[in-house]
Amino acid sequence: xxxxxxxxxxxxxxxxxxxxxxxxxxxxxxxxxxxxxxxxxxxxxxxxxxxxxxxxxxxxxxxxxxxxxxxxxxxxxxxxxxxxxxxxxxxxxxxxxxxxxxxxxxxxxxxxxxxxxxxxxxxxxxxxxxxxxxxxxxxxxxxxxxxxxxxxxxxxxxxxxxxxxxxxxxxxxxxxxxxxxxxxxxxxxxxxxxxxxxxxxxxxxxxxxxxxxxxxxxxxxxxxxxxxxxxxxxxxxxxxxxxxxxxxxxxxxxxxxxxxxxxxxxxxxxxxxxxxxxxxxxxxxxxxxxxxxxxxxxxxxxxxxxxxxxxxxxxxxxxxxxxxxxxxxxxxxxxxxxxxxxxxxxxxxxxxxxxxxxxxxxxxxxxxxxxxxxxxxxxxxxxxxxxxxxxxxxxxxxxxxxxxxxxxxxxxxxxxxxxxxxxxxxxxxxxxxxxxxxxxx
Length: 441
Prior knowledge:
Helices cover 6% and strands 35% of the residues. It is mostly beta strands and 441 residues long. The strands form 7 sheets. Strands 5, 12, 14, 17 and 20 form a 5-stranded mixed beta sheet that branches. Strands 11-13-16-15-30 form a 5-stranded antiparallel beta sheet, with no helix packed on it. Strands 23-22-21-29-24 form a 5-stranded mixed beta sheet, with no helix packed on it. The radius of gyration is 28 Å and the shape is elongated.
């Protein structure tokens, strides 16, 4: 008895592809036709197989599904092969998408769904714009006679100026990050069909969780889990952007894969009133430091309260007040050389060494940063990963969700409400919540 599932081969065309093909029948016709089953002597009628798009079709929208139907039998194999050009032939601007690796061949595989009676197969993903596609379908009738049908067509190319690509992403492949680290994707063009783009990006973690995407503007998408990641695991992000229609006439052209590690769990809590900073690692307190936060005589000089994430760090940094709206020459202007700076917002907040501050552990006297001794700041600098949670408690200035990486400032319910799909996305390799395809005109 054969398996009820179609033994589909999903692959890209390339060297050695012929060796992977299942040579099930010598007889074949174009899409929508029928063929005499190989070796048949009138034992049964040949299966009628129809493939859409039809053989010879040109400029097929890459975000339309491939459909294969069988009448008088069942489908046993569907293969979709794409003649994918190297990235440099797809007009990818130099430097874009840096940090996410070019996708391996398996990321261009076109998967599909077979109905219960095995008579219809529909592709789930998109095709690459401007490429030649070959669909080979094999079906069998009740007598076990096989029919193979082939459809060859080409997809609509993405036009210059309307090719969606990565501009940047955080983290980058190979990095080790903290348990709060989101996946941040910046695109080079505005995205209108946000749900389809969300569903084109699959996040898979070794220790499954659920997460969702939010958008900050039309070009930045952010994925965060419901709670912090479990520590010590690998995260893989497959960006199947090729063929997705981000806006009318704007198509993604290339797929990418991002792989990074979540390291140990390190969570830092700052008690503004007590002027202390406590670092917990894997649930145990490892350090407690005296600190001095913002002096809070104005909002600008008040350290923000909430769930921050550490973003970047500098062994040496020049802090210039003009970068936070205090112009040079004003009474409040400053320009400081600091060491061991770790950023935790975009409004100029860092932990850093402040040997001039004689009120560590006693009073808040900074311009909003968390001042530390040189020895303590050096330890925190050396022990911090990008994406470590940094929680400030007790000030009357709340961190905004878009001030740096304040994404956990939204409750999980609010985060889901702001997702284009409105549904949680499991990170257990079961796929994304909805469709990546468009509707036929």
